[in-house]
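Our preliminary data section would be incomplete without showing what the modeling component actually yields. Below, a chain of 205 amino acids is followed by its predicted structure, encoded as C-alpha coordinates that our downstream tools consume directly.
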Amino acid sequence: MTTKGNVYVIDDDEAMRDSLHFLLDSSGYSVRLFESAQSFLDALPGLVFGCVVSDVRMPGLDGIELLKRIKAQGSPFPILIMTGHGDVPLAVEAMKLGAVDFLEKPFEDDRLIAMIDVAIRQAEPVAKNEAIAQDIAARVASLSPRERQVMEGLIAGLSNKLIAREYDISPRTIEVYRANVMTKMQANSLSELVRLAMRAGMLGD
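Predicted structure:
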Protein backbone atom coordinates (compact mmCIF):
# COMPACT_ATOMS: atom_id res chain seq x y z
CA MET A 1 0.00 0.00 0.00
CA THR A 2 1.46 3.35 -0.98
CA THR A 3 1.25 6.15 1.51
CA LYS A 4 1.06 9.87 0.81
CA GLY A 5 4.44 10.23 2.49
CA ASN A 6 6.17 10.02 5.85
CA VAL A 7 5.38 12.36 8.73
CA TYR A 8 7.46 12.62 11.90
CA VAL A 9 5.59 14.11 14.85
CA ILE A 10 7.59 15.57 17.75
CA ASP A 11 5.60 16.62 20.82
CA ASP A 12 6.11 16.02 24.53
CA ASP A 13 2.31 15.90 25.05
CA GLU A 14 1.17 12.30 24.71
CA ALA A 15 -2.47 13.20 24.02
CA MET A 16 -1.37 15.52 21.21
CA ARG A 17 0.87 12.81 19.73
CA ASP A 18 -1.97 10.30 19.81
CA SER A 19 -4.49 12.62 18.18
CA LEU A 20 -2.03 13.62 15.44
CA HIS A 21 -1.17 9.97 14.85
CA PHE A 22 -4.86 9.12 14.40
CA LEU A 23 -5.46 12.11 12.09
CA LEU A 24 -2.41 11.57 9.88
CA ASP A 25 -2.71 7.80 9.76
CA SER A 26 -6.35 8.03 8.66
CA SER A 27 -5.32 10.62 6.05
CA GLY A 28 -3.00 8.10 4.41
CA TYR A 29 0.40 9.04 5.85
CA SER A 30 3.00 6.80 7.39
CA VAL A 31 3.48 8.30 10.86
CA ARG A 32 6.24 8.01 13.44
CA LEU A 33 6.02 9.68 16.85
CA PHE A 34 8.79 11.19 18.98
CA GLU A 35 8.37 12.53 22.50
CA SER A 36 11.45 14.73 22.34
CA ALA A 37 13.54 16.62 19.81
CA GLN A 38 16.62 14.71 20.93
CA SER A 39 15.07 11.30 20.23
CA PHE A 40 14.18 12.53 16.73
CA LEU A 41 17.71 13.84 16.08
CA ASP A 42 19.16 10.51 17.25
CA ALA A 43 16.96 8.69 14.72
CA LEU A 44 17.36 11.23 11.89
CA PRO A 45 20.33 9.63 10.03
CA GLY A 46 18.28 6.47 9.46
CA LEU A 47 14.99 8.13 8.48
CA VAL A 48 13.60 8.24 4.96
CA PHE A 49 12.47 11.57 3.55
CA GLY A 50 9.35 13.02 5.16
CA CYS A 51 7.74 16.05 6.76
CA VAL A 52 8.53 16.94 10.39
CA VAL A 53 5.71 18.34 12.53
CA SER A 54 7.14 19.65 15.79
CA ASP A 55 5.88 21.54 18.80
CA VAL A 56 7.89 24.69 19.46
CA ARG A 57 7.85 24.57 23.27
CA MET A 58 9.26 21.36 24.72
CA PRO A 59 11.44 20.51 27.72
CA GLY A 60 15.10 19.92 26.85
CA LEU A 61 15.64 20.77 23.23
CA ASP A 62 12.85 23.04 22.03
CA GLY A 63 11.59 23.46 18.46
CA ILE A 64 13.92 26.39 17.73
CA GLU A 65 17.01 24.46 18.81
CA LEU A 66 15.75 21.46 16.82
CA LEU A 67 15.55 23.62 13.68
CA LYS A 68 19.09 24.88 14.22
CA ARG A 69 20.42 21.31 14.56
CA ILE A 70 18.52 20.03 11.51
CA LYS A 71 19.69 23.02 9.46
CA ALA A 72 23.30 22.43 10.57
CA GLN A 73 23.05 18.86 9.26
CA GLY A 74 21.80 20.10 5.89
CA SER A 75 18.73 17.89 6.09
CA PRO A 76 16.19 18.39 3.28
CA PHE A 77 13.22 17.44 5.51
CA PRO A 78 10.54 20.17 5.50
CA ILE A 79 9.51 21.23 9.01
CA LEU A 80 6.16 22.54 10.22
CA ILE A 81 6.08 24.12 13.67
CA MET A 82 3.08 24.02 16.04
CA THR A 83 2.87 26.93 18.43
CA GLY A 84 0.70 27.76 21.41
CA HIS A 85 -1.47 30.85 21.47
CA GLY A 86 0.63 34.00 21.53
CA ASP A 87 3.85 32.33 20.39
CA VAL A 88 3.96 34.20 17.10
CA PRO A 89 7.44 35.73 17.75
CA LEU A 90 8.77 32.19 18.27
CA ALA A 91 7.03 31.08 15.08
CA VAL A 92 8.62 33.92 13.12
CA GLU A 93 12.02 32.91 14.53
CA ALA A 94 11.29 29.34 13.40
CA MET A 95 10.48 30.52 9.86
CA LYS A 96 13.77 32.44 9.73
CA LEU A 97 15.56 29.20 10.68
CA GLY A 98 13.96 27.34 7.81
CA ALA A 99 10.57 26.09 9.05
CA VAL A 100 8.20 25.84 6.09
CA ASP A 101 5.22 27.19 8.01
CA PHE A 102 3.64 27.32 11.43
CA LEU A 103 0.25 26.48 12.91
CA GLU A 104 -1.23 27.95 16.05
CA LYS A 105 -2.90 25.44 18.35
CA PRO A 106 -5.75 24.62 18.30
CA PHE A 107 -5.77 24.25 14.51
CA GLU A 108 -8.12 22.71 11.99
CA ASP A 109 -7.19 19.21 10.87
CA ASP A 110 -7.68 20.05 7.19
CA ARG A 111 -5.26 22.96 7.44
CA LEU A 112 -2.49 20.73 8.85
CA ILE A 113 -3.06 18.09 6.15
CA ALA A 114 -2.95 20.73 3.39
CA MET A 115 0.27 22.19 4.80
CA ILE A 116 1.94 18.75 5.00
CA ASP A 117 0.88 17.99 1.40
CA VAL A 118 2.43 21.24 0.14
CA ALA A 119 5.60 20.84 2.26
CA ILE A 120 6.28 17.32 0.96
CA ARG A 121 5.48 18.24 -2.64
CA GLN A 122 7.81 21.24 -2.60
CA ALA A 123 10.70 19.62 -0.73
CA GLU A 124 10.70 16.20 -2.39
CA PRO A 125 12.44 17.20 -5.68
CA VAL A 126 15.16 18.96 -3.68
CA ALA A 127 15.61 15.90 -1.45
CA LYS A 128 15.76 13.63 -4.51
CA ASN A 129 18.34 15.87 -6.21
CA GLU A 130 20.35 15.96 -3.00
CA ALA A 131 20.34 12.16 -2.79
CA ILE A 132 21.34 11.83 -6.46
CA ALA A 133 24.17 14.36 -6.05
CA GLN A 134 25.47 12.48 -2.99
CA ASP A 135 25.27 9.19 -4.89
CA ILE A 136 27.26 10.61 -7.84
CA ALA A 137 29.84 12.14 -5.48
CA ALA A 138 30.25 8.71 -3.85
CA ARG A 139 30.83 7.14 -7.28
CA VAL A 140 33.52 9.72 -8.10
CA ALA A 141 35.12 9.13 -4.69
CA SER A 142 35.36 5.40 -5.46
CA LEU A 143 37.69 6.04 -8.43
CA SER A 144 41.42 5.53 -7.98
CA PRO A 145 43.62 8.59 -8.71
CA ARG A 146 44.54 7.12 -12.11
CA GLU A 147 40.90 6.30 -12.95
CA ARG A 148 39.96 9.85 -12.08
CA GLN A 149 42.65 11.18 -14.45
CA VAL A 150 41.30 8.94 -17.20
CA MET A 151 37.74 10.14 -16.50
CA GLU A 152 38.90 13.76 -16.69
CA GLY A 153 40.59 12.98 -20.01
CA LEU A 154 37.44 11.32 -21.37
CA ILE A 155 35.13 14.18 -20.40
CA ALA A 156 37.62 16.65 -21.88
CA GLY A 157 37.09 14.82 -25.18
CA LEU A 158 40.51 13.16 -25.40
CA SER A 159 40.91 9.85 -27.21
CA ASN A 160 42.36 6.79 -25.44
CA LYS A 161 45.58 7.35 -27.42
CA LEU A 162 45.92 10.98 -26.26
CA ILE A 163 45.21 10.08 -22.63
CA ALA A 164 47.79 7.28 -22.87
CA ARG A 165 50.37 9.68 -24.25
CA GLU A 166 49.67 12.27 -21.55
CA TYR A 167 50.23 9.79 -18.72
CA ASP A 168 52.84 7.73 -20.52
CA ILE A 169 50.96 4.44 -20.30
CA SER A 170 49.78 2.09 -23.03
CA PRO A 171 46.42 2.66 -24.79
CA ARG A 172 45.50 -0.91 -23.80
CA THR A 173 45.91 0.01 -20.12
CA ILE A 174 43.79 3.12 -20.71
CA GLU A 175 41.05 0.87 -22.08
CA VAL A 176 41.08 -1.10 -18.81
CA TYR A 177 40.90 2.13 -16.79
CA ARG A 178 38.15 3.44 -19.03
CA ALA A 179 36.09 0.27 -18.49
CA ASN A 180 36.62 0.63 -14.72
CA VAL A 181 35.52 4.27 -14.83
CA MET A 182 32.32 3.41 -16.74
CA THR A 183 31.52 0.59 -14.31
CA LYS A 184 32.19 2.59 -11.13
CA MET A 185 30.34 5.66 -12.43
CA GLN A 186 27.46 3.40 -13.63
CA ALA A 187 27.61 5.09 -17.03
CA ASN A 188 26.58 3.23 -20.21
CA SER A 189 27.94 5.81 -22.62
CA LEU A 190 30.36 8.67 -22.83
CA SER A 191 27.49 11.19 -22.95
CA GLU A 192 26.11 9.72 -19.71
CA LEU A 193 29.58 10.00 -18.16
CA VAL A 194 29.71 13.68 -19.16
CA ARG A 195 26.26 14.27 -17.64
CA LEU A 196 27.36 12.61 -14.38
CA ALA A 197 30.55 14.69 -14.35
CA MET A 198 28.45 17.85 -14.75
CA ARG A 199 26.23 16.84 -11.82
CA ALA A 200 29.36 16.16 -9.75
CA GLY A 201 30.70 19.63 -10.59
CA MET A 202 33.74 18.21 -12.41
CA LEU A 203 33.13 20.36 -15.46
CA GLY A 204 33.63 24.08 -15.13
CA ASP A 205 30.81 26.25 -16.45
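DSSP finds nine helices and five strands in the chain. The CA atoms of residues 57 and 63 lie 6 Å apart. Preliminary results of this kind motivate Aim 1 of the renewal.
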